[in-house]
Design a protein that fits this description.
Blueprint: H1 2-20, E1 22-26, E2 39-45, H2 61-70, E3 71-76, H3 77-80, H4 83-92, E4 96-99, H5 105-112, E5 119-122, H6 146-152, E6 158-164, E7 183-192, H7 193-198, H8 207-223
Parallel strand pairs: 1-7, 2-5, 2-6, 3-4, 3-5
Antiparallel strand pairs: 6-7
C-alpha cells in the first residue's frame, strides 16, 4: 500500500512539474539510451533546494514505479522531522531514512536498509548550497565520503550522475517567493557500476579508493554542472 501511495504522489509531482516548468536535459557523453530497469544508484550533484523532486517531471513513468517500490535514500533528520515537508518526503519516498550530520547509528541504519534490488538515491554534498555558492555556514560545497561507501557495496547495474543546474531561480532557501514556468536544467551521465569502480583501482575496501571516488565526484561537481541562463 505504501508503494501505491508513493507512486501516485510521484505521478502527481511529475504532472505538476511538467505543467509548471520547462526542462532542458542533456547527455554530455551522448548516451541517451538509459536502461532504467538496470539503474541501481542515482547521484545528484549540486544540491540547492528541497524542491529537487521537481526533476521527476522528465523521468519515465516506468522508472517512477520502480522508485515507489525500491528507492532507498538518506534524508536529513531535521528536514524529515518538519511537520509538512517531512510528511511530504515520507509519502513520496517511504524508503527515505533519516540521518544526522554525525557518524552515528543513523548512517548504519541507512546502509542496512539497502537490499540487492534497491535503487539508491543520494545527494553526496549532504547540505544545500545557498545563493552565495556556499553552504549555510559559509563553507565550500564538498562531496562527502558516504557516497563511496554506498558504491563500495554495489557490484552490478547502472549508475546515473545527475548534474543539477540548481533551483535558486525557482526558490531560494529561506525566502518566501516561488517562481514558475522557469527552465530546469540537468545533465545526465550513465556508467556501468563495475566499470566506474575499477577506474580507481581494484581495492575498493581501502581509504585510498574511497578518496579517489570522492575526488572524482568533487571534480565533476565543480566542472560539469550546467549553467543557468536565467
Amino acid at each position: 500500500m505504501k508503494s501505491f501511495f508513493s507512486f501516485m504522489t510521484l505521478l502527481l509531482i511529475k504532472g505538476l512539474s511538467f505543467l509548471l516548468f520547462r526542462y532542458k536535459i542533456e547527455w554530455p557523453n551522448n548516451n541517451k539510451n538509459i536502461a532504467w530497469n538496470d539503474v541501481r544508484l542515482l547521484v545528484l550533484l549540486n544540491h540547492t533546494s528541497l524542491l529537487e523532486p521537481l526533476y521527476l517531471g522528465f523521468l519515465p513513468i516506468s522508472f517512477l514505479w520502480q522508485l515507489s517500490k525500491k528507492m532507498v535514500a538518506p534524508g536529513a533528520d531535521k528536514t524529515l522531522n518538519r511537520p509538512l515537508v517531512g510528511l511530504f518526503y515520507k509519502i513520496f519516498s517511504p524508503g527515505m531514512v533519516p540521518i544526522t550530520r554525525k557518524r552515528d547509528d543513523s548512517w548504519k541504519q541507512f546502509m542496512d536498509a539497502i537490499y540487492d534490488d534497491s535503487i539508491i538515491v543520494i545527494i553526496p554534498e549532504g547540505r544545500m548550497k545557498r545563493k552565495n555558492g556556499l553552504d549555510l555556514n559559509g563553507n565550500k560545497m564538498t562531496v562527502k565520503s558516504g557516497v563511496a561507501e554506498v558504491l563500495e557495496g554495489l557490484h552490478s547495474g547502472q549508475m546515473i550522475i545527475a548534474y543539477s543546474g540548481g533551483l535558486h531561480h525557482v526558490h531560494v532557501p529561506g525566502e518566501k517567493g516561488y517562481h514558475f514556468f522557469k527552465t530546469l536544467k540537468m545533465n545526465l551521465e550513465t556508467f556501468d557500476i563495475a566499470t566506474y569502480k575499477n577506474m580507481f583501482g581494484a581495492d575498493t575496501d581501502t581509504d585510498e579508493w574511497r578518496k579517489k571516488v570522492v575526488a572524482d565526484l568533487q571534480h565533476r561537481l565543480e566542472t560539469k554542472v550546467p549553467v543557468l541562463d536565467e
